[in-house]
Amino acid sequence: MTDPTPTPGIHHVTCVAGDPQRNLDFWVETLGLRLVKRSINQDDPSAYHFFFADAEGTPGTSMTFFPWENLSQGKVGSGQVSRTAFRVPEGSLDYWEDRFDEFGVDYDDRIERFGETVLPFSDPDGLPVELVEVEIPEDDPTVPWTEFVPEEAAIRGFHSVTLWLADPTPTQDLLRTMGLEEVGTEQAQGDTPGDERTRFAASGPVGKYVDVLPTVEGGRQGHGTVHHVAFKTPTDEDQEAMRTAVRKAGLSPTQQIDRHWFRSVYFREFGGVLFELATSDPGYTSDEPLDELGERLVLPGEFEARREQIEAGLTDVTVPRAETADADADD
Fold first, then answer.
1. Tens-place pLDDT, residues 244-300
2. Is residue 219 part of a domain?
3. Structural contact between residues 93 and 131, judged by C-beta atoms closer than 8 angstroms
4. Helical segments of 151-228, H only
5. Does residue 5 sit within a domain?
6. Higher per-residue pLDDT: 61 or 326
7. How many domains does the chain have?
8. DSSP strand pairing (10-17 vs 62-67)
9. Which of 61, 56, 41 is nearest to 284 (CA)?
10. What PROSITE patterns does UniProt report for this protein, alphabetically (predicted)?
11. What pLDDT, on a 0 to 100 scale, did the predictor assign at position 24?
């Protein structure tokens, strides 16, 4: 078997939220990401699916949420993505701490990890998130969204995810199969003494790192937890080759599933984390013009015929606008 094309890195991360309006307010207004798609959970059309990303919905920038209002609070533990980290420009963490103070965001002291400065914080559902200062190259593929946050501080896609695993070894072998390379280990700060964080790097410029950390801490899915992490397999051929490699490694990937803006394959890796392989095409602009992304509720495929019924079951939400926020501040 020939080796699959190495994944360039993370495509998107999907999480579980509670109140949809609170989720929108935080990720759009407080963090300054663009709502690039307002849709439904295609496996549960009674719930929204929100996609927050850079200005163009570039692969490697979209944090997505299922706001399941009736679900209970989750707990991060073994077999989950424990933290999701975003890249921000060097020198911007002072801005972010001031902004978090202004908006009442819970955040912790900065830490150093693999030579980079990290600012840990939580979203309103308790989801653990981090900002990592990096040098943004001139040819970076991400496009900052600046409606609420200036370009010099704007989030520029994913930096990394951290996996908590009872036995990291088989997952580390899987990451190597997927084309990531081990690039270092260091003592994990704030965790059990003796625990080591191992970092793997993919080939692309955005969302390239996966950190692996051993833990037997029990967890449960619910508000404030990650549902799955998706990795880029840009073409159908790349995806099928990766699917074959994953199956030969002893896992059970699904057949390809059409998710309207990308095509997906899912599987649980050895430690229990749900992984997805996602294509680059057709992308978020396949059904909306770039300047209108997120403006309306998009119902893919056969769901459009059920629009009236679906809309009646969804909570009314309002997407934050900078001009509205400015007017409210002046009142």
1. 999 999 999 999 999 999 999 999 999 999 999 999 999 999 999 999 999 999 998
2. yes
3. yes
4. 168-177
5. no
6. 61
7. 1
8. parallel
9. 56
10. VOC
11. 98
C-beta neighbour count of 97 within 10 angstroms: 17
Residue 74 domain boundaries: 10-330
Q: Residue 187 — pLDDT band, cuts 50, 70, 90?
A: confident
303 phi and psi, to 5 degrees?
Answer: -70, -25
| SS3 category, 31 | coil
Tokens of 258: 């059409």
**Secondary-structure percent of the chain, ordered helix, strand, coil, rounded to 5:** 20, 35, 45
pLDDT on residue 3: 83
Rounded Cα distance between 25 and 31, Å, is 9
The rounded distance, in Å, linking the Cα atoms of 52 and 9 is 18
Tokens coding 26: 């935080």
Q: For residue 208, how many other CB atoms are within 10 A of its CB?
A: 23
Residue 105 has pLDDT above 80, yes or no: yes
Quote the CA–CA distance of 81 and 251 in Å, as a whole number.
19
Give yes or no for a cis peptide into 137 (omega within 30° of 0).
Answer: no
pTM for the structure as a whole: 0.95
Nearest to 159, CA basis, from 94, 226, 113? 113
Q: How far apart are CA 4 and CA 294, in angstroms?
A: 34
Report the chain's mean pLDDT, rounded to a whole number. 94
- Model confidence band, residue 243 (pLDDT cutoffs 50, 70, 90): very high
Torsional sign, CA 299, 303, 307, 310: negative
Q: State the CATH number of the domain containing residue 36.
A: 3.10.180.10
Which of 155, 140, 16, 145 lies closest to 96, judged by CA?
155
Place of tokens 């701490």: 97
Query: Could you tell me the pLDDT band of residue 193, with boundaries at 50, 70 and 90?
Result: very low
Q: What one-character DSSP code corresponds to residue 297?
A: B
Is there a domain that residue 154 lies in? Answer: yes
Which contiguous run of DSSP H or E holds residue 111? Answer: strand 111-113
